[in-house]
Amino acid sequence: MSTTIESPDLLTVDDLVVEYPGKGMFGRPFRVLHDVCVRIAPGETLGLVGESGSGKTTLGRAVLGLAPVTAGRITFLGKDISHAGRRQRQQLSQHLQVVFQDPYTSLNPAMTVGDILSEPLGIQGITGADARRRVQELLDRVHLPVDAMSRLPREFSGGQRQRIAIARALALRPQLIVCDEPVSALDLTTQARVLDLLLEIQQGTGVSYLFVSHDLDVVRHISHRVAVMHRGRIVEQGEALKVTQTPDHPYTQRLLLASPVPDPDRQAERRSARQAHAASQESAA
What ranges in the chain are assigned the alpha helix state H? Predict the structure, then answer.
């Protein structure tokens, strides 16, 4: 049974621990997240950044109910959803949605775009003319033509398919969308367009994002605040510009130096700085 908790935030994660069972009968559990604490206010984007294996995707999955909560608490819309059952998760889907990394595998290749966007509406009892109107609104929101309704996902580019995935996430007018590396599979130009679209949608709807990425430049572009994850722990958290431009933690500094830049001279400077930073860390150790 969920507990109602007074909080000004849309989502709060307090001292979250996620463990997976060890191998074999006597294998020790593997701890992925260690006492993680984050919050997201209404209309806000929290960028969650870290290298592959840092645990950032696991945090997003825990919020969605796809990873086990061993300890701690996840509160959404004032209710504890740490151990929400299937029925409660179905009710939560009206307010909590996800956009995955690969826009092709996340869309059913045998369904038309119209059917893909109508599916979540039908589950909530919205059918017929009302569903068709809503699908048209969604396509317009993500800047796709109405005739996209009758086409299959394979007929679209990667960026267009991600727009379809975003439209599906918006179908039920959620208050929070977990964006799990939503632009990492796209080229840089398409990345920028999709990020601008997400910002436009946020300004128009007030939706909040938990935006998971390995790229500091990407999270700087879209986030109000940034949390940096390393080995399952939040090592730095604060305003986006501060964390992504003048970070305090050595790990975040290393991430910043590893971020690619289009200017070859600046890239060479970053490479030299990264090597010097690594050498200083080894000396300190």
Answer: 56-64, 86-92, 113-123, 128-141, 158-170, 188-205, 216-222, 240-245, 250-258, 264-284
